[in-house]
Every structure is written in C-alpha cells, then in structure tokens.
Amino acid sequence: MIVCGPTGSGKSALSVALARRFSGEVVNCDSVQIYRHFNVGTAKITAVEQGGVPHHLLDIAEPTVTFTAGDYARHARAAIAEISTRGRLPVVAGGTGFYLRALLLGLFEGPPRNDSLRERLHARETRKPGSLHRLLARWDNQASVRIHRNDTPKIIRALEVIISEKQSLTNLFQRGRDPLTGYRLLQIGLNPPRQDLYARLEQRARLMFERDGLLEEVRALLESGVPGTAKPFESLGYAQALAHVRGIQTLEQAIADTQLFTRRYAKRQWTWFRREAAVEWLEGFGADPAVQNMAAARVARFLASI
To answer: Are 2-107+177-305 and 115-173 in the same CATH fold?
Structure first.
C-alpha cells in the first residue's frame, strides 16, 4: 500500500500506525531522506518515532552520490519484494511524486549525464532566468506542465534528455517502461485543511532553524567534507540554511524563504497527487487518531478483498 500527500501532512505517522496494525514495514519515498546525515531539514523520522517498525530506503546514499528516480525504483522494488516474501505488508510512504511514479510505472533508460551540456544550460538560465522553462515548453509542452518553472535541476535534466535523444520527453516516457506487476495496490492520500497545513509548515521551518539544529547540522556537514554543491543541499531548508551559513542571507530571510518555498512545494505536491485517479483521500493529518482509524478500516477492507 501507499501513503502519499503534501509535506507536513503526517505521512510518516500514518504509515507507522498502519504498519503496526497490519504487520507492515515502511519503504521511504522521499528523495532527500535517502541521504545519510541530512536529518533535520528533511524532518526524517527518528528511531523513537519509528516505534520498532522496520524502515527501508532511509540513509542509503552518501550526500555526494547521484541517486536517480531509476535508482529509487530498483531499490524500492527489491525492498517491496523482500518484505512481501516474508509475509509482511509493504507500506510505501513519502511525497516525492516522481519517485513514486518511477516505482509504479517504471522509467525509460535515459541517456547518461552530459556535464558540459548541463553547464551550458545552467549558464543560460543564470543569464536569463526562466528561459529554460520556456524552451522546454516550446519543445515539449506536456513536460513543461509537469515540471515547475522554478525546478531548475529537473528542467535541465529534461532538456538534456530531449537534446541527447532528439525526441520529446513525453514520447520517450512511453519507451521501454516497466510497470510494477504482481501486486494489488491501495493508495491513501492525506488532505489536511490547507491553511492549517501552511501554519504547521511555517512553524516547522522556524523551529528547524531556531531549535532543532538545522544550522548546526549544515555546518557539521561542511566541516566533514560534504561540498556545498552536493545534491541534497539543493533541497528546501538546506539551500536556505547554506546561504545563511555562507553569509548570503540573514537568519530571518532564510527562514522566510524556507517557509515560502515549502508552501509552494506542498501546493505542487497536492496538484501532482490529485492527478492520480487511484488515490483515496482522507481529510486530516496522519497523526490524528480518527484519520488513522479511517485509514485502518480502509486497509482492512482492502486486505479482506484480496
């Protein structure tokens, strides 16, 4: 089964509760939580919060390693197969929609990274902000709708693939896909009140900086030799904390930017998962016992029907 929804909606709490009730194990589906040492800014579930429930695909990659959606799909499928073989219920939990789609539908085998092309594209975007998204819209309008105009890394990868393969990304997605088979799926989405979620996200961002040690974590990572160019430093919270540590932003600017970009990210996640017709939505936060009971009832019916 799958637990999805926007950041801060309580996916981890619900997945643990369901795993406890139905002899399950959790498979992480967050693209930054796979990295070791990046804990505070990802709101990574702690050992205490896991409550003895086995978790997979947490802390499996070093920060300097490139970990793609294809890599995730391979690791997640292997974890799901191993969990199922032991007669336990795999509970995939996370908000990285592209990783989840790669797991369920598969991905075509894209071309290798072209660093010189990436550098030219990045330089173009630096000179003319927004130009890469406009170029993507010209070459593949469907892809430009799926990829947010501010998500420069994904835009660069999309253009890299289009230029290398001389085909639109949309056409290429239909080539060589390998959908997940052999399982029946139940997808549960969390849909808390939007303003309540935004308030929680703003408070969480502030506490990460002021109480939970995000800045100290970033300084420790840099001192340990992790370069500021490492992929997870591009993620929400870490990019702003890094800018503050380097003296580029004040603390209040870093917090305000994190709050703003996190709200926008949550909105994009809602939009992404709303396109998935199979998701069954529950109103509320995943830590709410009433929501957990509703989800458990739905899982019980699902398992009884298999």
So the answer is: no
Cα atoms in the Cβ-side hemisphere of radius 13 Å centred on 209 = 25
Q: Which residues does 143 contact at the CB level (< 8 Å), separation at least 6? A: 136, 158, 168, 169, 170
- Residue identified by tokens 């961002």 is 205
Band (147; pLDDT cuts 50, 70, 90) = confident
Residue-wise pLDDT for 78-103, tens only, equals: 999 999 999 999 999 999 998 999 99
Cα dihedral 51, 54, 57, 62 sign: positive
Yes or no: domain 2-107+177-305 corresponds to CATH 3.30.300.20 = no
What is the distance of C-alpha 178 from the center of its chain? 21
Out of 3.50.50.60, 3.40.50.150, 3.40.640.10, 1.10.20.140, the CATH code matching 115-173 is: 1.10.20.140
Question: Which of 170, 201, 151, 210 lies closest to 7, judged by CA?
Answer: 201
Q: What angle do CA 17, 51, 201 make, to 5 degrees?
A: 65
- The whole-angstrom separation of Cα 208 and Cα 215 is 8
Dist. CA 274–CA 53, nearest whole Å: 29
Q: How confident is the model at residue 113 (pLDDT cuts 50, 70, 90)?
A: confident
Sequence ranges of the domains in the chain: 2-107+177-305, 115-173
